[in-house]
Amino acid sequence: MKRILAVFLTVMLCAGLLPRAGAAEHVSTLRVGLHYGSGVLNAASVSSADGGGFTVGCYDGRNFQSRTTISNSRLRVSASGKSVTITDAGTGTAIYTGKDDNLALRPNGGQAKCQDTSYRGDLVFAASGGQLTVMNYIGIEDYVKGVLPNEMVPSWHIEALKAQAVCARSYALSSINKHQSRYGFDVCDGTDCQVYRGTTNTTNQSDSAVTATAGEYLTYNGELATTYFFSSDGGATEDAVNVWGTEVGYLKGVPDPYENLDAADNGRWTKTLTAGEVANKLRAAGYSIGTVSNVAITKRTAMDNVNEVTVTDTKGSKVVLKRQACRTVFGVNSIRYSINGQSGGSGAPVKTDTTVLTPAPPAAPETAPLPSANPLDTVEPTNYISGSSAAGPYPRFAAAVIGATGDALRQYLKAYGATSSFTFAGTGWGHNVGMSQYGAKGMAELGFGYQEILHYYFTDVQIQK
């Protein structure tokens, strides 16, 4: 299942996320990063699936060049400077040392295991500074077979799996050379690209969905479409421009009546943040805010998704979050939610919730002191808002009075019956752009074919082969 978690979200929604225009680049081999960056290895354990040994070679671009064959089936691959050394894992005997930038092991039996995960295709190793970057060079169809059951439940309806297979293939083709400049491969094996785990979790049904759609991908106006997908939208997908700030013709919001949110992972959710936690999240995202007094949805899209949230502090200063920040800054699951039961308006400012720092009217109007335990209880209130009770007007203390200290604020709020927390209640899990996986599941179960599913979630696309 596509996981759009907090980490995913901030990484994936950067520059690398935007669609890449152009016709599909037809490649015979896709280069997938397995261990790279902070995950590089000092040494790798490799074995052949059937004990048939390996062909040792290297890659010139995407073309394999054979060097020698070895019968050893259990290997240890290590790095020394920029050299890669292959030894027998049992005896420790050196078998081969190469200085190629990308030494490759091609299993004679069709599959190889690296660090306890089995892969089709070739395992490729690049050494630098005594550490190994490990890649899997693999045909596009075998790659999609390794993605599909790790991005969608492989027991789901075959038409939903077919739709996912086309999405996975299109996304991979649009990501050729995505990580070339930094790591030397096309795509990674995580959520920044697509979750790929070799042959892990593959089934006859998931493989059949890939085979049935072999070579198919989506285009828009003759150019390759980058087919984003996510777990569930909670009621409607969204225009890319309203999430990422970029207009994309085929990424338009549509209403989604097909999801079973009660059965979906995180289909319905709540998250409560204190005023202090809201402030900390804003500051971590680079915003300046004082003591938070209110959080309100101030704009929604035509699809009724959250498009703007305004956070106000006790000095009246505001932070306005727009588009994807309405989800990522707060760390919530989707852009479809309410706050403290208030859904907010559509395109126009909504009535601000004044209950957060509005205490119940004190017994003595206007001059009631703070609770005696509060160190600020000798300070007179400095501004007022009118209450509706017979007690008359009551004080709303300025920031100078309640200060920025969390304990004093919480004590004041508790004593006067106010709330210092904000509950986000929503539906859906993900960025809401492109295809809903639970929506595809629902459509398939109602009898829609995979092509109908794709045409519903991606506007005016064509299916090419």
Largest sheet descriptor: 7 strands, mixed
Radius of gyration: 28 Å
Mean pLDDT score, rounded?
Answer: 83
Into which percentage range does the β-strand content fall?
25-35%
Distance between the termini: 26 Å
The amount of helix comes to 10-25%
Describe this structure in a few short sentences.
Helix content is 21%, strand content 28%.
Structure description:
- The protein has helices at 6-12, 140-151, 158-173, 180-183, 204-212, 241-244, 275-284, 325-328, 399-402, 406-415, 437-445, 450-457, and strands at residues 30-35, 43-48, 54-60, 63-70, 74-80, 83-88, 94-98, 103-107, 111-114, 117-120, 122-128, 131-138, 187-188, 217-220, 223-224, 229-230, 268-274, 292-300, 306-313, 318-322, 337-339, 384-385, 394-395, 421-427, 435-436, 462-464.
- It is an alpha+beta fold and 465 residues long.
- The protein has a 7-stranded mixed sheet.
- Helix 2 packs across helix 5 (204-212), helix 3 runs antiparallel to helix 11 and helix 3 packs across helix 12.
What tags apply to this protein structure?
465 residues; globular; alpha+beta; 21% helix
Topology:
Elements: H1 6-12, E1 30-35, E2 43-48, E3 54-60, E4 63-70, E5 74-80, E6 83-88, E7 94-98, E8 103-107, E9 111-114, E10 117-120, E11 122-128, E12 131-138, H2 140-151, H3 158-173, H4 180-183, E13 187-188, H5 204-212, E14 217-220, E15 223-224, E16 229-230, H6 241-244, E17 268-274, H7 275-284, E18 292-300, E19 306-313, E20 318-322, H8 325-328, E21 337-339, E22 384-385, E23 394-395, H9 399-402, H10 406-415, E24 421-427, E25 435-436, H11 437-445, H12 450-457, E26 462-464
Parallel strand pairs: 1-13, 16-25
Antiparallel strand pairs: 1-12, 2-5, 2-9, 3-4, 3-8, 5-6, 6-7, 8-11, 9-10, 11-12, 14-15, 14-26, 17-24, 18-19, 19-20, 21-24, 22-23
Helix pairs in contact: 2-3, 2-5, 3-5, 3-11, 3-12
